[in-house]
Write a structure and sequence with these properties.
Structural class: alpha+beta
Mean pLDDT: 91
Number of strands: 8
Strand content: 25-35%
C-alpha cells in the first residue's frame, strides 16, 4: 500500500474524487461498511484506512471523501512522527513552496 500523501489529490492510491464504487474497485470489499442518512463509512482494517463520504441531498449521491489512515507519508516522512508545532512548520513550508495561502 502506498501511503504517500499527494496534496489536493489523495493518499493510499485513492483520489479524493473517487466514487464509492471506484474505491471498492481499487481496494476491494471493505471490512466494515456503515451507512446512515447523512454519511457512508468504509473501514479497511488490513490497510489501516477509514473512509467517509457525505451524502449530497439533492442528487442522493456521496461526495466529499475523507480519508483517515494509520500512516501518512509525505516526501518519505511519516507525519505521525512529528509533534503539532513541527508539523505546522512543515505544512507552512509546503504551502510556501506551492504558492498556497496558509491561514
Amino acid at each position: 500500500m502506498d501511503y504517500n500523501f499527494q496534496i489536493g489529490k489523495g493518499i493510499a492510491g485513492i483520489n479524493f474524487d473517487y466514487t464509492v464504487d471506484r474505491v471498492i474497485q481499487t481496494l476491494g470489499k471493505p471490512d466494515k461498511r456503515q451507512e446512515d442518512s447523512v454519511s457512508l463509512y468504509l473501514q479497511y482494517e488490513r490497510f489501516g484506512l477509514f473512509l467517509s463520504y457525505e451524502k449530497q441531498k439533492q442528487k442522493q449521491k456521496y461526495i466529499d471523501l475523507s480519508i483517515e489512515t494509520d500512516i501518512l507519508l509525505y516526501e518519505g516522512k511519516n507525519w505521525y512522527n512529528y509533534n503539532k508545532t513541527k508539523l505546522l512548520k512543515i505544512i507552512q513550508k509546503i504551502y510556501k513552496k506551492k504558492n498556497y495561502i496558509f491561514d
